[in-house]
Amino acid sequence: MQSYPSGFLDIVLHQFDTVMPGIGTNDCGDGSDEENCEGRCTLEFLRFRCKDTSACLPLEKVCDNRTDCKDASDEGGLCHNSTLCDHLNCPRRCKVFPDGPKCLCPNGYKFNSETNTCDDVNECNIYGICSQGCVNTRGSYRCTCVDGFRLKSDNRTCVVTSGEPLMLYTTQHSIRGLLLKSQTQTMIAMNLSLVIGVSYDGRSVFWTDLNLKGESIMRAREDGSRREVLLNIGLGSPEDISVDWLTGNIYFTDGQKMYISV
């Protein structure tokens, strides 16, 4: 079993809301790229990615006689040979790019070269486009939230309607909670063997316990009640743990057997 230094501390901060990370700059042009530009910088979303991936441009900035990509991949080449579109017979419209002409469809649709039609794009298949639920619609999509959450003004991010941030921390032999606004502390579990990882799904606390008599993955309510063993067979040295609170899946690492399991 792996040893840990005395006073080992594991902290989990659960903020009761879900946010999506940005990628640093507003390259998509509409301000929304900070949440998920990587999945939407395609012709289906009327975007053009520079070859060196330095920017994600609206199509009107491609072949406009102004260099917007650091590598100038948005200009030159076949840009101004407009007669190339005459041979494609596009269902909606055609645009000439530096590497040649392409058929374009309205935002949220994808050109199908086999049927020469514009087919709906299922945006819900793009990872992270909504922080919780997603409903695909013709040419668009709609984000949804589970009970107790509401959509922010960006129409993608869900936040709780009430509550306050909770910090969970372990001190090897106990798990405690601290409500950050009220500074109220609670004891969730004590007299434990050696707690390494801890996670929270909004209702229950999960942790890994390295016990010489049998390693285990445990669960209890946030007030410490209803403690139970979820798994204590086939474990070597369970360490980090994370709970997907939407699906209920539990992910954990095993330092002795060198794997990530669910």
Automatic annotation (TrEMBL):
<dbReference type="Pfam" id="PF00057">
    <property type="entry name" value="Ldl_recept_a"/>
</dbReference>
<keyword id="KW-0254">Endocytosis</keyword>
<keyword id="KW-1015">Disulfide bond</keyword>
<keyword id="KW-0245">EGF-like domain</keyword>
<dbReference type="GO" id="GO:0006898">
    <property type="term" value="P:receptor-mediated endocytosis"/>
</dbReference>
<dbReference type="GO" id="GO:0042562">
    <property type="term" value="F:hormone binding"/>
</dbReference>
<dbReference type="Pfam" id="PF00058">
    <property type="entry name" value="Ldl_recept_b"/>
</dbReference>
<dbReference type="GO" id="GO:0043235">
    <property type="term" value="C:receptor complex"/>
</dbReference>
<keyword id="KW-0677">Repeat</keyword>
<keyword id="KW-0325">Glycoprotein</keyword>
<keyword id="KW-0472">Membrane</keyword>
<dbReference type="InterPro" id="IPR000742">
    <property type="entry name" value="EGF"/>
</dbReference>
<dbReference type="InterPro" id="IPR001881">
    <property type="entry name" value="EGF-like_Ca-bd_dom"/>
</dbReference>
<dbReference type="InterPro" id="IPR000033">
    <property type="entry name" value="LDLR_classB_rpt"/>
</dbReference>
<feature type="repeat" description="LDL-receptor class B">
    <location>
        <begin position="203"/>
        <end position="247"/>
    </location>
</feature>
<dbReference type="GO" id="GO:0005509">
    <property type="term" value="F:calcium ion binding"/>
</dbReference>
<dbReference type="InterPro" id="IPR023415">
    <property type="entry name" value="LDLR_class-A_CS"/>
</dbReference>
<dbReference type="Pfam" id="PF07645">
    <property type="entry name" value="EGF_CA"/>
</dbReference>
<protein>
    <submittedName>
        <fullName>Uncharacterized protein</fullName>
    </submittedName>
</protein>
<keyword id="KW-0812">Transmembrane</keyword>
<dbReference type="InterPro" id="IPR018097">
    <property type="entry name" value="EGF_Ca-bd_CS"/>
</dbReference>
<keyword id="KW-1133">Transmembrane helix</keyword>
<dbReference type="GO" id="GO:0016324">
    <property type="term" value="C:apical plasma membrane"/>
</dbReference>
<dbReference type="InterPro" id="IPR009030">
    <property type="entry name" value="Growth_fac_rcpt_cys_sf"/>
</dbReference>
<dbReference type="InterPro" id="IPR049883">
    <property type="entry name" value="NOTCH1_EGF-like"/>
</dbReference>
<dbReference type="InterPro" id="IPR002172">
    <property type="entry name" value="LDrepeatLR_classA_rpt"/>
</dbReference>
<dbReference type="InterPro" id="IPR011042">
    <property type="entry name" value="6-blade_b-propeller_TolB-like"/>
</dbReference>
<keyword id="KW-0675">Receptor</keyword>
<dbReference type="InterPro" id="IPR036055">
    <property type="entry name" value="LDL_receptor-like_sf"/>
</dbReference>
<dbReference type="InterPro" id="IPR051221">
    <property type="entry name" value="LDLR-related"/>
</dbReference>
<dbReference type="InterPro" id="IPR000152">
    <property type="entry name" value="EGF-type_Asp/Asn_hydroxyl_site"/>
</dbReference>
